[in-house]
Each structure stands twice: as structure tokens, then as C-alpha cells.
Amino acid sequence: MDLPICLYNIPGRTAKNVEPETIARLAELENIVMVKEATGSLDQCSQLLNMTNLTVLSGDDSLTLPMLSVGAEGVVSVVGNIVPEDVLAMLRAVTEDNWTEAQAWHHKLFPLCRDLLGLATNPIPIKAAMAELGRDTGELRLPMTSLNSAQRSALRRTLEAYGLIGVGVGS
């Protein structure tokens, strides 16, 4: 099969990091062309860039700009589901070598990434945010369950602070 393959390295989901040496060996396979790197380690990102010719994509929204600064080329974004234009604006600023603008977008997006994605295991908070914004997300599958009332209140505050909903909307 000639389909390009993106490796997903998400230790938070699998409880195991795919070590850079293993990824480098896998990168020898012609179809493996990129890796979603979600270890939270800028060192590991740098190792992959030094050891392989893979396209490295951020798998941690809050680390996208730091990873781009060392040579990553994009992001598999979660918050991009609710603010795609903002994530694209940050990526575009990097492409245009406008690091001041990219940093401004990073700092605007950072609280959303931290506060929204820190509420519960993904996809619980992003599905809840999309529902709060009136977007169909489908049902959660067990063992995942909906946010509790305190988490929903925190979600609304985060969306309000970002300017996505008005104060009191959806309460």
C-alpha cells in the first residue's frame, strides 16, 4: 500500500513513549512520513528532527509554537476544532517569519489550551466545548463520561474569557 503514514506518539493515551530510536527505525519505512509528537518534550521533538527526515507535528496544542521554533511543521490540534482560524493564524505567522505575531497568537491560545484541555481527558472537554458552542459532536463512548457541573462551569468561564460565548450564555 502506498498511503503515507503518520505515527502517533501519545504516551498520555498509551502509557508508553515511543522512544526516538524506535521512531528513527520506523522512519526507514518508505510510507512513514510524519509523526504526531505528544510527549510534552521539546528535547524529544529535537531528537526526532535530528535523527529523521520525518515531518514532526505537535500533538500538544500548548507546545505548538515552541515545537515550530525548533523545526516542527504543524499541529494535530484539539483547540483547532473550536478556533481553527486562530490556530491557522499562528501557523501562518510562523510561515511568514513573523514571530512576534506568532507569539501573540500563542499567548492568546495558551489559556484556552491549558484551561479547556486540563478539565478532563480528551475528547471530553473539546466535545463539551463544541456542544456549548452549538456544534454537534456525537456521543462520548464509555468509559468516558460527561463533565460534572463544576467542570462545566469552569468550561463556560474559559470560553467566556476567550470571547467565544457571552457572560451567562449557556448557563
Question: In words, what does this structure look like?
Answer:
With 171 residues, the chain is an alpha/beta fold. The chain has helices at 11-14, 20-26, 42-51, 64-69, 84-95, 99-117, 124-132, 149-162; strands at 5-9, 32-37, 55-58, 74-75. Helix 3 links the parallel strand 2 and strand 3 (55-58). The longest helix is centred in the middle third of the chain and has 19 residues, at 99-117.
What is this entry, summarized?
The chain is an alpha/beta fold and 171 residues long.
Count of helix runs: 8
The domain tally reads 2
H/E order of the elements?
EHHEHEHEHHHH
- Name the overall outline: globular
Largest sheet: 4 strands, parallel
Backbone CA Rg? 17 Å
Average pLDDT metric: 94
Number of DSSP-assigned strands:
4
- How big a fraction of the residues is strand? 5-15%
Strand order of the largest sheet: 1-2-3-4
| N-end to C-end Cα span | 50 Å
> Would you tell me the structural class of the helices and strands?
alpha/beta
Helix content: 40-55%
Oligomeric form? single chain
Poorly predicted residue ranges: none
